[in-house]
Amino acid sequence: MSMPIKLSIDLNVNGVDYPVTIEPGRNLVSVLRSEVGLTGTKEGCDDCECGACMVLLDGQPVNSCSYLAAQAQGRAITTVEGVMRGAEMHPLQRNLLEAGGVQCGFCTPGMIMSATALLARNPSPTEEEIRIGLSGNLCRCTGYAKIVAAVQATAAGRY
Length: 159
Ligand code: FES
Ligand code: FES
Description:
Shape: elongated
Distance between the termini: 59 Å
Radius of gyration: 16 Å
Number of helices: 5
Helix content: 25-40%
Structural class: alpha+beta
Bound molecules: FE2/S2 (inorganic) cluster
């Protein structure tokens, strides 16, 4: 009986190397949650539609449900846990709470990752640019306006 093939790789997540041994076909979100133990990244549709699984790879937003963990070796992976500033929340996190942009919270980690990438490439986005930047992230609760307001507040330097 043949044994399933496994790969031993290192994943660099939020600046820390995590050695993991996985089947080659595992997607990044499942490895982040199960092997790495960081459960902030959510798994929603598992089909590149909802954005709940968004992480940054070398600063670029990627749906980690549709990305092989093995392909992320050698790249800098940032998850929502990595946007904290020590024990303090990132201003975007504080503004999301302040604006009421978090209800069930399932979309929030992915929103934060997309908004972080947007603000890194465009520190003063218009409302339309924010809506385009978050267009890959679905929210069933808030109607988006409060999330957009939180990104605007962060861009304006609040918190
Ligand atoms: S879980 Fe990845 S896009 Fe929905
Ligand atoms: S707050 Fe519930 S899906 Fe966005």
